[in-house]
Design a protein that fits this description.
168 residues; elongated
């Protein structure tokens, strides 16, 4: 049996403080990041698909490489535009990172929503990675930035394709 033995009052207070802070910190970090499931209508699904489509249009010819005759300032502005479009769609699609409350519980619809939620859940990870790599662009190979940009775009496209077939 596990027993805590305290040799003095300070040790007991310290251990108690650590336990209380841990009990308060753990639920805040584990459950605060997940949004609550929402009930969807076709209107909501169309909105989420439109957010993805807008981002896809903004990313239509995305490339992390410098274009011929592109100034350094234009390059930074173009990449910043890609990053801001991805950050915007990441925030807009936050409610569908968890499985919504569905009216149509058919296996095909659940699988479609599972795929959409999986991509929506992966998107913030890729966008955060892209943001970090972009901030350290002087010390990071361009291929890493391009990979994170491409994978972020693939997540958005997969969400948009899934939302096309999703039902409430």
């Amino acid at each position: 049996m596990f027993r805590l033995r305290f040799h003095n009052i300070r040790g007991g207070v310290l251990a108690f403080s650590i336990c209380v802070l841990g009990a308060l910190w753990l639920p805040a970090t584990c459950w605060a990041a997940k949004p609550a499931p929402i009930a969807l209508t076709q209107f909501h699904i169309n909105d989420f698909a439109a957010y993805c489509q807008t981002a896809i249009i903004d990313l239509r010819d995305c490339s992390a490489a410098h274009r011929p005759s592109e100034s350094a300032q234009a390059y930074v502005k173009r990449m910043g535009g890609y990053l801001s479009a991805l950050i915007k769609v990441e925030k807009q699609t936050e409610p569908i990172r968890v499985m919504p409350i569905l009216q149509d519980n058919s296996p095909s619809n659940r699988k479609t929503w599972s795929n959409v939620c999986k991509e929506a859940y992966k998107l913030p990870q890729w966008v955060t990675r892209l943001d970090l790599l972009w901030r350290k662009r002087d010390h990071v190979p361009l291929t890493h930035i391009g990979d994170a940009l491409l994978r972020s775009k693939i997540c958005v496209e997969a969400m948009e394709n899934g939302l096309r077939n999703a039902r409430p």
